[in-house]
Amino acid sequence: MKCPEIYKNKYTEILNEKYVAVNGKDTTEINEIRYECVYSAFYTHKVMYDKFGKWDKEIFPSNRNHPILMWNNIDLLSNGKKYTVFTNGLEEWKHIYASVMILDEKERDVLTEQTEEKIAITNLFGELIKHHNPEKKDFYEVYWKMVDQKR
Is the pTM of this model over 0.90? Predict the structure, then answer.
């Protein structure tokens, strides 16, 4: 998918994709919601940081410069149910997206089937992207400090 243009606080479409993680001989597939043609591949990182504070862990895929960020025990839908949230994104020539992957308390992929829960999560991140405040920049300071230390 190519992006004819990119959008601040907007996206062109939401795609359901599979993220494939390879760790040595182990391959794991997890469902990923991608918000296409956003202004920044960091959007899902940033909206999570702005709403829930600093992430719990960074995961550096072997082929990437930027980590996937992970938050544990997040009451994402304000219903008492806790999730593990992974945020990711990609910027390359004419293609840019920000994405999320979600596990429940039993480490099951929440995005496998088109459930009300998945729709609510998809809509939540869509709204967070649309209404995020670009003036709030503390995420970037914390993020770049961490990335620079790990390089």
Answer: yes
